[in-house]
Amino acid sequence: MMFLSLVGLPVVLLFLGVPVFAALMAAVLVTMVFFTSMPIVALQQIMFGSLDKFSLIAIPFFIFAGEMMGVGGISRRIINWVLSMFGGLRGGLPVTTVGASTCFGAISGSSPATVAAIGRLLYKPLLDKGYDKSFAAGLITSSGAIAIVIPPSVAMILYGIAAEQPITKLFIAGILPGLLLATILSAYLYVTDRSTRENKTERLSFLSATKEGFWALCAPVLVLGGIYLGVFSPTEAGGLASVYAIIVSVLVYREATWRDVLLVAGSAAMLTAQVMLIIAAAGAYSWLLTVNGIPQHVTNVLGALDENPAAFLILVNLLFLAVGCVLDPNSAILVLAPLLVPVAITMGIDPIHLGIIMTVNLSIGMFTPPFGLNIFVAQAVLNVPPTTIYKGIIPFLLLNLLALLVITFVPEVSLFLTHHL
After folding, report:
1. Which of 205, 309, 378, 413 falls between 20 and 30 A from 355, CA-CA?
2. Cis ω on the peptide bond leading into residue 385 (within 30° of 0)?
């Protein structure tokens, strides 16, 4: 009965449309009241303890920075810079969409923010160049998921906290997998492009695009360069990114006002509150699982696989692909990482590699029908029905699964830079 309360109840509530944090809290409360003798007063201590981590401060910073850059013209200049390199090539505009999503993700760390920013600027040009609605919507929705894999990534920050792994190392490990995803998508778009010569996008001047977008392009260099050189922590980098976004948007490009800064701050605060609610609820849920011996039970069940790490990784992929269809990445990582990381370590699997596998799985879940969050964002921003998006997503879903197999069974894709930097 306790197992049904802890596992079955939240699953049922999620399928009924109850918010994630409420489903987890309901499971915690029911279990504590009816199946344990633990005092309820301990619950608030555990929840607040889950939020009492310095690394979590990076989350509101990167959320704010990503939204501010979208409002202040930074994302548009990044798109123009990418377009200056790929615009004249076969499939230039679709490839630009992937490249711009990767670059914007290297600033914001947020997949929904990337879909919203890139979608507003590139959906109509894609249609104007002859690409159908389904293809354009599917491309924008799926390429935005790269933002979760390419650093800085909010999902990686949460994994680092849940698995007690260095966040800087996770960021370094995410570089090559993120670039691999972008390369596979770009190669597919180049090979399969069927647009006519008249539909080729004109290539902008690289020098003029670089000059106009200089301050925008400095953002990822400044943020990621400072982290990798050890000048500041990921949390401090988030604060710097926020200040930089304000200065460039308001004072340099002058496309945003101080009123816009306040509006973006309010929006970022709302998103942050939603994330923190989930973190607090997941912290209480994970604590209750731990004190009731669930992690040890999972370890024992998976113990039969200790001679076969490949089978374990396949199970992890299947689990996260399924979970990613119904849960957001933050919730999935906070609940499952503490259970799976100890098992992986006993099998000799690097926890950094496991973190990248989880992140890539959950990035795919962001655009997997029917509940992928990117789909809902794209539906609102592009004003297209979900069925149109579903159709366009299919080839990109298959390509992402191919990349996932490579990342899973070729650990050096994730670990090469961590070993040599």
Report:
1. 378
2. no
Instruction: Provide the whole-model pTM.
Output: 0.78
Residue 43 CA neighbour count, 13 Å, CB half: 19
CB distance 116 to 334 below 8 Å: no
| Residues 375 and 369 sit within 8 Å (Cβ to Cβ) | yes
Q: SS3 helix, strand, coil % of the chain, rounded to 5?
A: 80, 0, 20
Unique residue bearing structure tokens 């159709």:
391
User: What SS3 class is residue 132?
Assistant: coil
Strand positions, DSSP E, 108-258? none
pLDDT bin (cut points 50, 70, 90) of residue 301 is: low
Q: Read off the pLDDT of residues 192-233 as tens digits, 9 standing for 90 and up.
A: 886 544 445 555 688 888 888 899 888 888 887 887 787 888
| Alpha carbon distance 405, 399 (integer Å) | 10
CA dihedral sign, ordered 78, 180, 236, 238: positive
- Taking only the tens place, the pLDDT of each residue in 86-136 is 777 778 889 999 998 898 888 777 787 788 878 888 898 889 888 889 999
Mean pLDDT of 308-330: 82
